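User: What would this chain look like folded?
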Amino acid sequence: MLEIKEVSRYFDNFTALDKVSLNIAAGEFFTLLGPSGCGKTTLLRLIAGFDQPDNGDILLDGKSIIATPPERRPLHTIFQNYALFPHMTVTENIAFPLRMVGCTQAEINRRVAEALEDVSLPDKGNHYPDALSGGQKQRIAIARALVNRPRLLLLDEPLSALDAKLREQMQLELIKLQKEIGITFVYVTHDQGEALALSHRVAVMNRGTIAQVDEPSRLYGFPNSRFVADFIGQCNLLSGKVTQLQDNRAQVELEGLGPVQTAIPADSTIAVGRNCTLTLRPEKIHISSRVSHDEVEAHFKGIVHDMLYLGDVTVYKVELANGMLLEALLANSSPGRARFFEIGDQVEVAWHYDAGHLVMD
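Assistant: Here's the prediction, encoded as structure tokens.
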């Protein structure tokens, strides 16, 4: 539905976007994710028409929209500050885009009522924005954006101003709303958890380029680079060199740790002698006072250097013999009060040969 072709945008000597290409399907919840300054908001502004690319093209349903002014593009943008008119009631705010296109009063009344039902706020029509909570304001902003059924909804960090609990609630409502209405969402965030929870697919951006586009589970489990592995969630990054290949396994000489066996990714360009990084999620590492040794596992002794209790899990930083810190996660699922390792305790850590994911440097 939406095709971004070799789009670049420059600001003086700074390259905000460098030949970015993306395809977004109709009905998809698509997220642009990346650190501050990576170009995600710039790309959203180009799609919306608030700015123009220096090179490339943007097509909607196969037709270029580069020359189409923002107000004539069949899309709406939701910002993190809601942008509601404070002097208008909720009903008047939602009705505003319909009045701009000359709808009859009867049509406006019907569609505003439908929009309020869509966001589960049918009784707030006569309220003013300052009488609403942050979550209610966000839902009204969504209702206003959806009232004339745009082809595309752009959302620029719309939940960043909400507290954690309300943010989680709004995430669930956004998923439900997008599924029910079927409009394509293009969502911008720097929050990895939010991107993984909401999206059908995610484009991870870095320095004006696309680092990887994939489903959330594949981004997390099979990052294609050290940057993506490090940016998506917590990850141990172990540098090494490939020393041997056999069947579906590689032997990697990890810096400071020695040789370990690891699975070879299906689409890898792995080769003996190449530098690589073993990406290893904390939840894939076993930690115990004594780990049973298995020939298909890597195992090392260490000392608990630090710990962080998070309620459902405890994160441990284990210092290995060579001084390397390895992060491991232990679920607090035992009945009664959870028992913790203490700082200074001797422990063993281990992981199965296929627990990590190998990326070439």
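The chain has two domains: 2-226, 234-353. If you want, I can go into more detail on any region.
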